[in-house]
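PT: before anyone asks, these are the final sequences, not the draft ones from last week. 252 residues across everything. Please model them as a single complex and drop the result in this thread when it's through.
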Amino acid sequence: MSVITNPPQVSTASAARAEGLSKFYGTGESAIPALDDVTVGLGEGQFTAIMGPSGSGKSTLLHMLAGLDRPSAGEVYLGDTEITALNDKALTLLRRDRIGFIFQSFNLLPTMTAGENIVLPMRIAGRKPDDHWVASIVETVGLTDRLSHRPSELSGGQQQRVAAARALASKPQIIFADEPTGALDSKSGAELLAFLRKAVTELGQTVVMVTHDPTAASHADRVVFLADGHIVDEMHAATADEVLDYMKHLGA
Ligand code: ADP
Ligand code: MG
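LR: through. Structure below.
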């Protein structure tokens, strides 16, 4: 029995969407469909979690949505822009200017302070950071007294919060996170998730997070379930137990 019954139809605009998205690795007989005809919209101002068993295609979907890799078939839109129609140069600029990323490994520059890391992408892009916005992010993420520290002087949880602040600094249209709590202890993970939640609720950001952790997914407004490269179901405002039960049903 599925626990999903008539999910509420939230009529939000899509910050990003995929139409008939497929990705095959390899060619011919040995081609592996990592994603198979996925159509999904990601609501603006929403926190969406993408869940599924290992190998179900979560990272592949996220990478296609974020323009980090190209699909074998189908289209991806960021707002009204079809990013799958862009050439590499235009796609690189779009990623830089309109998309934020948080990876499992924090990807901070070790020689720079936390504060410098946060605004580095904007400096590289030749854009002036909005000091008020950056200060509000830094405060929300609880890093105000850590800005002059280098990554090696920070805990893993603090480093990931720097990475999260960096992702938000340029006010991207959408933030993608792939297992952002995967390398964190549970307390640091909870702090990061609370920050992502606040980024959506208080700062109006759009966040899409891949996770295999039901507790992480329970912070999201919407949980989309992937299995074998297909979207198989979704839940809204789900508890960790509800997500866990559904994962068991998926055989994860
Ligand atoms: P998840 O993030 O849900 O664990 P992935 O999106 O990483 O899943 O992978 C989905 C499927 O695609 C898996 O079967 C995986 O082995 C395969 N896959 C992913 N990346 C590659 C790649 N670069 N080359 C070949 N197969 C890949
Ligand atoms: Mg993955």
